[in-house]
Amino acid sequence: MPIVRVRGPLKGRAGNRSEHAIEGGSVGELLLELERAHPAAQGWILDERGLLRRHINVFVNGELGGQDTRVDADDLVDVLPALSGGCR
Amino acid sequence: MPVTELLVGTKKGLFVLAGEPGAPFDVTARAFAGEPVEYALRDRRSGRVLASVTSPFYGPKIWYADDPAGDWEQAEGVALPAGGDAALERVWVIVPGEADGTVYAGGDPGALLESRDGGVSFSLNRGLWEHPSRSKWQPGAGGLCLHSIATWPGDPDRLAIGISAAGVWLTDDGGASWHSGNEGIVARYLPDDLPAEDEVALCVHRLRRAPAQPERMFMQFHGGVYRSDDAGESWSDIAPGLPSDFGFPLAIDPADADSAYVIPLTADIDRVTPDGRLRVYETRDAGATWTPRGDGLPAEHAYLTILREAFDSVGEGDALELYCGATSGALFGSADAGSSWFDVATHLPPVLSVAASGAR
């Protein structure tokens, strides 16, 4: 099962746990399921349209990906705040 | 003299200031460090503090706390309908309603959120969201911001709201239905021969109601200052006498329906205080005349920008206190209805909003 890894405030919203094993075939499916499983995180990664928030980056096995990036059972997905959103 | 509390939303967090008017205030708490706090206020009914925070990463949220120095809880329902084609971009303002527990929040894109439990949870006002004219609404430079919510003292069914740039909207059935209140407003940025039904692209900058006479309203427009004597249905130009009819902030004396205070900026293409000095303009005759109030305010080389929500008041009459904050981080106050001013704070982050409340 793919692993989604969150940190900082997202970890706190997701049961204070960093790593989450989630069923799904794409980054978007994994993130949707993560938010469903942890209502406190709802809207923090995906907006109401179901789109990845503009200044959130996802990396699949260390490579920058996107919402539609396919994932396999042994993949690691890191969810990180993007530099583009920070500290103006 | 009693202590006044200011909740100051800044580009880098919420600052709580407290002090006796006339001298600099103390910073008693800071919350949401590093994050833009668009607006915060203390609901005088419950004592609860509500804050609108727009994380650049995690989106807009409303938070509440009884003690701003303590733990904050995230309000539920601060979102547009899931699966739609729009997302909430920002919450501009939070306003206590007239009914017990009612709190309103105005957001971008032109969304009115309502709470019946004091701000713990919100839901979208569908009447406004699904208004047939919505497809014609146009965003201003700051987005399609619903920034002004004027309640009617004693009547929870009557509201007036201002949207940039979709004009004035009125309801007298608690938000079930809405109609525009734009008669008399002249937008210099629209063609003269625009059909009346298309005249919704009106860039209202700020709207306030006079509680002592609720039919009386004042408006700062994108090029114009207006007064309404019929609860926002129609508007009369009261800008003559001001150095500029462009600006954002607006305050009133609750005890005097003929009073209004504005802080003009030079023009839409030059959003700084005119002539390098900060002056607040006061009317006490419903806009027939304006008097500059600047004793104690920067009078030389002061090219400041005061944003829409960064001007508030507490008290009334001769004891009316006024507070305004600049994007420079300076915060000014008056304890005598604008006659004289003092420095409240000088080195805050850029000030986005100011909400004043009296002794608790």
Produce the secondary structure layout.
The complex is a heterodimer of chains A (88) and B (360).
Chain A: E1 3-5, H1 8-13, E2 19-21, H2 27-37, E3 56-60, E4 63-65, E5 76-81
Parallel strand pairs in A: 1-5
Antiparallel strand pairs in A: 1-2, 3-4, 3-5
Chain B: E1 4-10, E2 13-19, E3 26-31, E4 37-42, E5 49-55, E6 59-65, E7 73-74, E8 90-96, E9 103-108, E10 111-115, E11 123-124, H1 126-129, E12 145-152, E13 155-164, E14 167-171, E15 179-180, E16 204-209, E17 217-221, E18 224-228, E19 236-237, E20 246-251, E21 260-265, E22 280-283, E23 291-293, E24 311-314, E25 321-325, E26 331-334, E27 342-345, E28 351-357
Antiparallel strand pairs in B: 1-2, 1-28, 2-3, 4-5, 5-6, 6-7, 8-9, 9-10, 10-11, 12-13, 13-14, 14-15, 16-17, 17-18, 18-19, 20-21, 21-22, 22-23, 24-25, 25-26, 26-27
What features would you describe in this structure?
The complex is a heterodimer of chains A (88) and B (360). Helices cover 19% and strands 23% of the residues of chain A. In chain A, strand 3 (56-60) and strand 4 form a beta hairpin. Chain A has 2 helices and 5 strands. Chain A is globular, with a radius of gyration of 12 Å. Chain A is of the alpha+beta class. Chain A has a 5-stranded mixed sheet with strand order 2-1-5-3-4, covered by helices on one side. Chain B is mainly β. Chain B is 1% helix and 41% strand. Chain B has one helix at residues 126-129, and strands at 4-10, 13-19, 26-31, 37-42, 49-55, 59-65, 73-74, 90-96, 103-108, 111-115, 123-124, 145-152, 155-164, 167-171, 179-180, 204-209, 217-221, 224-228, 236-237, 246-251, 260-265, 280-283, 291-293, 311-314, 321-325, 331-334, 342-345, 351-357. Chain B has a 4-stranded antiparallel sheet, with no helix packed on it. Chain B has a 4-stranded antiparallel sheet with strand order 4-5-6-7, with no helix packed on it. In chain B, strand 16 and strand 17 (217-221) form a beta hairpin. The longest helix of chain B is centred in the middle third of the chain and has 4 residues, at 126-129. Chain B is globular and about 50 Å long. In chain B, 51% of the residues are buried. The mean pLDDT of chain B is 95. The chains are: A alpha+beta (88), B mainly beta (360). The interface between A and B is medium-sized, with 20 and 18 residues.
